[in-house]
């Protein structure tokens, strides 16, 4: 009857059932909760493949921003990025690279990427990491 010498016993079967149901719900909902970002890896091209036209936006350690377009670098004020980016984007630009110095806070890099996405919704944005000013464009 549920009574023993030491007192009443607790029936833990309903508690275990509830825990198992919660575990199943968690396992079903977990994949939907994960936020994924698609990463495109460039394909190896032969010597006859021409590189895509691109722009490079550099975020410097002093949080200055510059745009490199066809070998010329233009220094910008912090709020000039959207307007200058619109003027440099052409129909042929498919990729905008973001290059940043070592001491730039990550939130400023993400803010720059968000600005680029706001101006050029159909353009791919890629990070250029570990690349000095003398690196070759893809």
Distance between the termini: 79 Å
SS element count, helices: 3
Enumerate the spans where pLDDT stays under 50 for 5 or more consecutive residues.
Answer: none
Average pLDDT, to the nearest integer?
76
> Would you report the number of β strands?
7
What order do the helices and strands follow?
EEHEEEHEHE
The fraction of residues assigned to DSSP E strands is 15-25%
Q: Which class best fits the helix and strand makeup? A: alpha/beta
Largest pleated sheet: 5 strands, mixed
> What is the top-level CATH class of the largest domain?
Alpha Beta
CATH topology type of the largest domain: Nucleotidyltransferase, domain 5
Question: Largest sheet, order of strands side by side?
Answer: 5-4-3-6-7
Shape: elongated
Number of domains: 2
- Helical content class: 25-40%
Radius of gyration of CA atoms, rounded to a whole number: 27 Å
Question: Could you say what the CATH architecture of the largest domain is?
Answer: 2-Layer Sandwich
């Amino acid at each position: 009857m549920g009574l023993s010498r030491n007192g009443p016993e607790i029936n833990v079967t309903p508690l275990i059932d509830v825990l198992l149901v919660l575990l199943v719900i968690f396992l079903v909902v977990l994949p939907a909760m994960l936020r994924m970002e698609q990463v495109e890896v460039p394909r190896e091209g032969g010597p006859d493949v021409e590189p895509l036209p691109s722009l490079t936006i550099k975020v410097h350690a002093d949080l200055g921003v510059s745009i490199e377009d066809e070998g010329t670098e233009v220094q910008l004020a912090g709020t000039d990025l959207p307007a200058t980016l619109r003027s440099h984007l052409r129909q042929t630009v498919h990729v905008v690279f973001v290059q940043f110095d070592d001491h730039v806070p990550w939130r400023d890099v993400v803010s720059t990427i968000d600005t680029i996405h706001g101006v050029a919704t159909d353009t791919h944005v890629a990070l250029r990491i570990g690349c000095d000013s003398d690196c070759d464009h893809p």
